[in-house]
Write a structure and sequence with these properties.
Blueprint (H helix, E strand, L loop, with lengths): L5 E6 L4 H9 L4 H4 L3 E6 L6 H10 L3 H4 L5 E3 L6 E3 L10 H7 L4 E6 L10 E5 L11 E2 L3 H5 L17 H19 L6 E6 L1 H9 L3 H20 L4 E5 L3 E10 H7 L12 H4 L4 H10 L5 H4 L2 H5 L8 H6 L10 E6 L2 E6 L13 H18 L4 E5 H4 L10 E5 L3 E5 L9 E3 L4 E4 L1 E6 L13 H8 L14
Parallel strand pairs: 1-8, 1-9, 5-6, 5-8, 10-15
Antiparallel strand pairs: 2-18, 3-4, 6-7, 9-18, 10-16, 10-17, 11-12, 12-14, 13-14
Helix pairs in contact: 7-8, 7-9, 8-9
Length: 467
């Protein structure tokens, strides 16, 4: 009897908007040849961490506790960075290990610190740095140095340099995957994040094609060397070109829901001290490593040229004695939090529902007048009433070409330029030769599908097996 093997190659932000034109030009022959293809619906918001938490658990964000890479404490305005410890549902790798399925997870977000599993775990983007213990077993870390393994592109670099960095990391990641695929395994998954980075910062440029062609070549190699394995290609979310952004915090300010402490808003900025300038100086002095050892909270207290949600909270720019609501950006979405009494705020419990409905009604009216399509949900509608860390209101921009922002300006501009060339969308991808039911697949369906593949059933998840 042939041993069952399942391999998943994940293309971060993979989209048919890029794949189909390249297929038509004859540049992606291996992606072209899959018999079964469909749009894979992501989470709302379609963030990388949010979507992968739902992939790993088969549950929607209301049960994973992951709504972005930072979350807001339910009992205060404390900002928390998410990782494996935040994850509120049992992940796929635990189920597989318990059932003696030997697995290999490479670069999957929300997996740091890595669990001890029956197999190999290399944590993803939530890993603080390569100085951390980000592999299981621990001795694998020294082997990865041979491949010049890195976690993520450097935040110190100019945006124009990030696509090149991403391609270098992709080459390293492919070498790592090639090495690990020679080991004994039943289930293997690797995530290539280069596609997401190049689409954000080089949409329509040669780097996007380079990344997809490298992944396509790797798919051919995997198929040739693993002829008895089943193969799935997928993405955590899609991607789309954007040029404009709706600044929800400016809108909240103009409608008297958000108030700022004007005297505190620009002390460091007025002195010309910004995080961007400090990063450039560190890079010139070859002291970039200091960014990793400076506490994140301290780093956040140094403002950027544009004050965003986290900076506004940490630097006391927000006047919580007068603020009723504030927004946080989450790719293509905006998350609105009420300043509730339970957080030490001014919105009484009996006022919460009325305030939510008031904000939603005004938002819908404003966007409708501007002919902008958007979906607006309450916490209860999108997740569930008891969901930990969930925003009270979520706005998802359905309008093509539009993202959201949450900068706080003195000028209160409602319409911004998009911060990146492209951003995430809910329409991801799935391609396979397996006989899967792909009529309306969702990312939460992958975990129960994988468990079902290895005859692990009767596990309660929001998703449904596609087998």
């Amino acid at each position: 009897m042939i041993k069952k093997k399942l391999i998943i190659i994940a293309i971060d932000g993979g989209t048919f908007d890029i794949i189909n034109p390249l297929i038509n030009e004859g540049k992606l022959p291996n992606l072209k040849n899959f018999k079964n293809k469909a749009i894979l619906t992501s989470t709302i918001p379609p963030g990388t961490g949010v979507a992968w938490a739902s992939f790993s658990t088969g549950n929607n964000p209301g049960k994973t506790n992951i709504f972005d890479f930072t979350i807001v404490d339910d009992d205060s305005w404390k900002i928390k960075f998410v990782n494996r410890k935040t994850l509120g549902s049992k992940p796929l790798w635990e189920y597989l290990s318990e059932n003696k399925v030997r697995s290999c997870f490479v670069n999957i977000p929300i997996s740091y610190p890595p669990d001890k599993i029956n197999g190999v775990m290399i944590s993803g983007i939530d890993t603080p740095s390569i100085l951390s213990n980000y592999t299981y077993p621990k001795n694998l870390k020294s082997k990865l140095k041979e491949f010049n393994y890195r976690i993520e592109v450097s935040g110190l670099k100019e945006k124009s340099e990030l696509p090149g960095q991403a391609i270098d990391i992709l080459n390293s990641r492919i070498k790592t995957a090639r090495y690990l695929l020679k080991k004994d395994f039943d289930f293997f998954i690797v995530l290539f994040r280069a596609s997401d980075v190049v689409q954000h910062f080089a949409w329509g440029k040669k780097e996007v094609e380079i990344v997809y062609k490298k992944i396509d070549d790797f798919i051919m190699e995997v198929k040739r060397k693993n002829k008895n394995a089943d193969l799935i290609i997928m993405s955590d979310h899609g991607h789309e070109r954007v040029t404009k952004a709706f600044n929800v915090n400016s809108w909240l300010e103009l409608n008297d829901y958000l108030k700022t402490n004007a005297k505190k808003s620009g002390i460091l900025l007025n002195l010309g001290i910004t995080r961007e300038k400090i990063f450039r100086i560190l890079e010139r002095l070859n002291l970039q490593f200091l960014v990793k050892v400076v506490p994140r909270k301290l780093g956040k207290k140094i403002p950027t040229q544009k004050i965003d949600f986290e900076e506004a909270i940490i630097t006391n720019l927000v006047d919580f004695k007068k603020t009723r609501a504030i927004a946080k950006r989450a790719v293509k979405s905006s998350q609105i939090f009420l300043n509730k009494e339970s957080r030490g705020g001014i919105v009484k419990k009996e006022q919460e529902e009325m305030l939510k409905m008031e904000i939603i009604t005004k938002l819908k009216s404003f966007l409708s007048k501007n002919k902008i399509r958007a979906d607006i949900y309450t916490k209860e509608e999108l997740y569930e009433k008891t969901a930990k860390y969930a925003p009270d209101i979520t706005l998802y921009m359905k309008e093509k070409g539009y993202d959201t922002s949450s900068y706080i300006y003195k000028s209160k501009n409602v319409w911004d330029e998009a911060r990146e060339m492209a951003t995430h969308a809910v329409d991801g991808i799935i391609l396979t030769d397996m006989k899967l039911n792909l009529k309306n697949p969702k990312i939460i369906d992958l975990a129960p599908t994988i468990l079902n593949y290895f005859s692990i059933r009767n596990v309660k998840m929001d998703g449904q097996s596609l087998l």
